[in-house]
Amino acid sequence: MRRKPVYPESVVVKRSRAGLGLFAARPFKKSERIIEYFGRTITNAEAYTSRSKYLFAVHSRKTIDGMTRRNTARYINHSCRPNCTPEIERGRIFIDAKRNIQTGEELTYDYGKEYVDTHIKPRGCRCATCDMK
User: Which domain does 74 fall in, by range?
Assistant: First the structure.
């Protein structure tokens, strides 16, 4: 089932506990498509040597570098108890609501064990529900 991402006015970038974050500008229902994570497609070799913090592996041969500021989804922070989930469809990454989300709530998803162990654990997780503090 193809669902269209919502328009950018449905989300807003603001300050969060972890720096900048993406917040709901309106309520979202469970399973509702919120936004697309997009950017330049790079090779595995480029991903391995890249210094970008916005890499999202689509599959074993495709990674998206979402560093471009036009990619508003890059502001979605990690949470140990996220309210969103990434969905990969036909090589594209969409962010869907995992549960009902209220206006003003920060949008979050789980970045995955490898990213958390490498980049978040050494500094301590700053998500609202974390026990790694």
Answer: 8-120
Q: What is the pLDDT of residues 69-111, one digit of tens each?
A: 899 999 999 888 999 999 999 999 999 999 999 999 999 998 8
Distance CA 102, CA 106 (A): 9
Q: Can you tell me whether residue 73 is helix, strand or coil?
A: helix
CA 65 to chain centre: 12
92 located within any domain: yes
Return d(Cα 130, Cα 103) in angstroms, integer. Answer: 22
Q: Are 23 and 105 in contact (CB under 8 A)?
A: yes
Cα–Cα–Cα angle for 56, 98, 23, nearest 5°? 75
- Find, among 56, 128, 120, 67, the residue nearest to 94 by Cα: 56
Which range among 12-16, 82-86, 113-117 shows the weakest confidence by mean pLDDT? 113-117
- Give residue 1's pLDDT: 46
Question: Per-residue pLDDT averaged across 39-68, rounded?
Answer: 91
Instruction: Report the C-alpha gap between 70 and 19 in whole angstroms.
Output: 18
**105 DSSP 8-state letter:** P
Total number of domains constituting the chain: 1
